[in-house]
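User: Hello, can you help with two protein structures?

Assistant: Certainly.
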Amino acid sequence: MKDLILASSSKRRLDLLKQINIQPGLVIPADIDETPLKNELPKDYSIRMAKNKADKVHSSNPNCFVLGVDTVVACGRRILPKAENIEQAEKCLRLLSGRRHRVYTSICLLTPNRLKQHIKTVVTIVKFKRLSELEIKYYLESEEWKNRAGGCNMQGLAGMFVLFLRGSYSSVIGLPLHETYCLLSNYFKLLESVT
């Protein structure tokens, strides 16, 4: 798929695409301002980020398909940050402990010459167990929280805190596979005969 660019630096997203046999021709991280707007709702923020990432990369590659993706962890209307330090990570963990929260992942596909723009958002509800002080300390010491939305690496240790998940597991990790497959299959031949 040499005409497809993934506008993300996330290795997890690349691995998820490979899981469904999609190999982008290029991976170009989009360097954009990710500051939420005042009173911006989590879903709106997720859509805006995915769109801005796709727009930024597409502006330099107008003849390609560009896939922008953004994942947001939210408690009610509160957008949790990508944890950059241990204090942020601890604050997120304590907020998520024993509660339901939502994970919004938006995908934005721009077609060559911007003839079409497709945007899809997947919402997944996750509930964490009530975390003990020892569990919080153990997780923080692992440093798996670094640069993760809401300080949580669901593929790693944070997975053991999940009481239930309603929605898309792959979306929580960073890319809703079913929706991405459906979107891309409109433009690319994704299934090849094995005979």
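That covers the first. Now for the second protein you mentioned:
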Amino acid sequence: MSIFSEVPQAPPVAVFKLSADFREDGHPQKVNLGVGAYRTDECQPWVLPVVKKVERLIVEDGSLNHEYLPILGLPEFRSASSKVALGDESAAIKENRVGGVQALGGTGALRIGAEFLRRWYNGVNNTATPIYVSAPTWENHNSVFADAGFKDIRPYHYWDAAKRGLDLAGLLDDLEKAPELSVFVLHACAHNPTGTDPTPEEWKKISEIMKRRSLFVFFDSAYQGFASGDLDKDAWAIRYFVSEGFELFVAQSFSKNFGLYNERVGNLTVVARDGENLSRTLSQMEKIVRTTWSNPPSQGARIVSKTLNCPELFAEWKGNVKTMADRVLLMRDQLKAKLQAQGTPGTWDHITQQIGMFSFTGLNPKQVEFMIKEKHVYLMASGRINMCGLTTKNIDYVAQSIHDAVTQVQ
């Protein structure tokens, strides 16, 4: 008898199971709209030109070696990452109350932040602190905070299915009713999975309540630059909250906007009340990192750091990011136009009103099942599609498939 004989089989991760099913499908017109990764119009992964350039610079740099980085990560990467999030003129940075923790992707940044909050937020070992995540949200948000030990994870209103947009009234009401000092996980831009973001005026209303009721802000920023093509525009919410005096965390990922998916490059930006609070906070995060991955990898961090810290490379990177964002915006425009041209029932304005990599189509589970089984178009059960999976070659087929799903399946 194995000591592991009672271990239950865990269900597969939905998005990776979807990709596995897609690979096994032999249909000539199959389309993968599931996994969240950028694709070119040839439906191929894209290594950013600036990344290739920097990788060559790293290879040719004789001063580099494979010694351990500091536990908190490459200093020039951490500072540059925080600067991208908060802006060149951030008062918080100038006041030396901003620090960073290099992490294994955005997920690692979330986990380090969650571990710290569980141990030290408003006292020691706060497993009962309510953690609020949007309904719906990226599925890993719930798991990260649950595995960090939090017992009270709650949804807050976000998506209005009827109008296919933001449920602002419900969101504001949840903020008013949440216990003081609750933690709210907010998507900085390009909300996953809905692609629906608050406007600046709506963010101001959210901020006012959170400040008045002493709610903690934990931003997840996985798509800066990728959403609109403008780094500053996509960081507006983060910078506004900082300007309002919030202490907050920002989990940053460079998977999407650098195309460094398998390098796992992330950063947890910490904005504290003052330098002394920052120092103590980072000292505890260092202890968490030491027992989690001990020490972060260097390659991806060096690529990002060299790019962000060189004006010429930084400008080239912004151009690469805009190239990706513009292709996504083009696919949104074309999909909406094709659905409207063929008279697909319902309103499709939300496709262009949403932003970023994902679109919440509004297709129900039965229609999704029809799309996969009958049309070989793979998308998440929620109806979320990755706009990057659309190309000029498959968009007509996808639009027709959506039309058939809506008209044939209720």
